[in-house]
User: Fold this.
Amino acid sequence: MSSPAPTPYDKTKAPTGAPKRTGEWPLFEVFIRGQHGLSHRHVGSLHAPDAEMAVKNARDVYTRRNEGVSIWVVEAEAIHASSPGDKEALYDPSNDKVYRHPTFFDVPDEVGHM
Amino acid sequence: MYAQMIQSTGKGVKSLDEMDPQERAFQERINAGGKIEPKDWMPDGYRKNLIRQIGQHAHSEIVGQLPEGNWITRAPTLERKAILLAKVQDEAGHGLYLYCAAETLGITRDEMTEALHEGRMKYSSIFNYPTLTWADMGAVGWLVDGAAIMNQVPLQRTSYGPYARAMVRICKEESFHQRQGFDIMMKMCKGTPAQKKMAQDALNRMWFPSLMMFGPSDKDSVHSEQSMAWKIKMNTNDELRQKFVDQTVPQAEYLGLTVPDDTLAWNEEKGGYDFAEPDWNEFFDVLKGNGPCNQERLQTRKDAWDDGAWVRDGMLAHAAKKRALKVAAE
Assistant:
């Protein structure tokens, strides 16, 4: 068994008899900042014809219960991501630098809080 | 459930020793409670199964708007109307979260929509039953959303990250749905004898279709065994059905309503109720497309899709025009 690349789907392919479509609305990733001063957080995605509509749709889909005070939308195609295969190269080196954590150092009791 | 009768490859579950190293690492990660994310390697069957399951779940949320949408214009008060409208809007949201989760597996939204319209993908059998009176809005929220919660709460721990995250959002919103339904039932049951009779009638019609939502017993199903090994199904259908009955019967008693099952009895030994199975022939018949509302539901979806095509295309054209104007201005 293998994990095949997803089959490319012809977005303009219309079912028999139906008029030819111009295609799907682009996909946007949605980020919301909650009430309490935290940074924007990814909450999901949605389709919209453009960024302006994406913000409006995000408001309807992701903030029906006061989930946020600020919305970012980013066209999914514009996101560059690391790939799972790079995991070791990217993150393993930090494992052997335990001294980066304050707990690496012993502070004598007499010194008190540091 | 919202996803019923999902078929896997049917080959049965492989042991860790039978797997190649890649698949073994994948299964071990799931066994250890790890999450699988969109770009990770995954077996072909896992991907296919999840697309079917999440897609069917999404379609159920969308088609599930129709029986309740039917009553928005006829809600008895402005408050009830606003509540029902908010509930139906939530269902649309749930559908959208789930479509997005399915899309991360490499299927497009349009492809899923077409599969639904052509009958290659299904939605839950429950939405092929009609909602005849206002009391049905109560029974749907109380029973149908109640049954959905039974299934969706454990799915928050499912192995596929985007699906689990969609479930977390959905579960947060779902308990409002059940409570608003029960609230309608309470009001009807404390009302006139005619109103209480209406509530009883709604329970009579919705009880067995609600039990069918969990699907037939799957204790011997290889499909189910594989899905459970992959943690895309967390409990057997019988477990969830039992839990649902045990939770719901006391609520019906509180309402002063009678569950339409003569055989219903508390079984001290198992610590749960004994109850009658729904008519599984009816269930398979409804799945095949012969329920009371199958044609109407699907036709409504197709019409909405076809009638909305000019809007979708028009907005894309408008967006392209705006982009061109902006480039020209620079």
Summary: Chain A has two helices and three strands. The longest strand of chain A covers residues 27-33.
